[in-house]
Amino acid sequence: MTAALPSLALAVLCLLQAGAQVPVQPDLDTEKFAGMWHVTAITSFSFLKMKDGMKSSMAIIGFMPEGDLAMKLVWPLMDKCQKFELLFQQSGQAGHYAAQEKRDLHVMETDYSYCAVLHEAHHSEGEPSMALQLLTVEQDVSPQLLQEFMELIPTMGLTEDMLAILPKSGPEGTGWQ
Length: 177
What we know:
CATH superfamily: Calycin beta-barrel core domain
Radius of gyration: 15 Å
CATH architecture: Beta Barrel
Strand order of the largest sheet: 1-2-3-4-5-6-7-8
Mean pLDDT: 81
């Protein structure tokens, strides 16, 4: 996986320059991808104001029988946990999901056992927003993987100052029971 991210970054840059869509994991194996992940880094304009108070969150990803992606998230903040439950409908392309035609989720790449990169776009009446998320099975992230994730950021039209490398959160602060 770690050797694949730089080549993915180059491929994404070429695709974006050609006006193509965000790439997805070829032949995404939903059974292998389902499970508990830690959001260890996120890049988004939406999180700029909160990024200093954020900690690593947990995401439980599952798939419905019809192929839709169900995601439960808990974001531990300074004084509370923010919980979300999201349902993304399969868009017809494996690895691409949509929620109410306002939010797109792409599983850009995963090795299923260590890390994954998600791209999320939110289309609203106001300013559209975009995020890249680095998910890992463990809360620890290697410096090499983090560097490769950082190299991917500008290829998606985001900037490095939007990056939040999320510190570990303890099990008592996650809100999972």
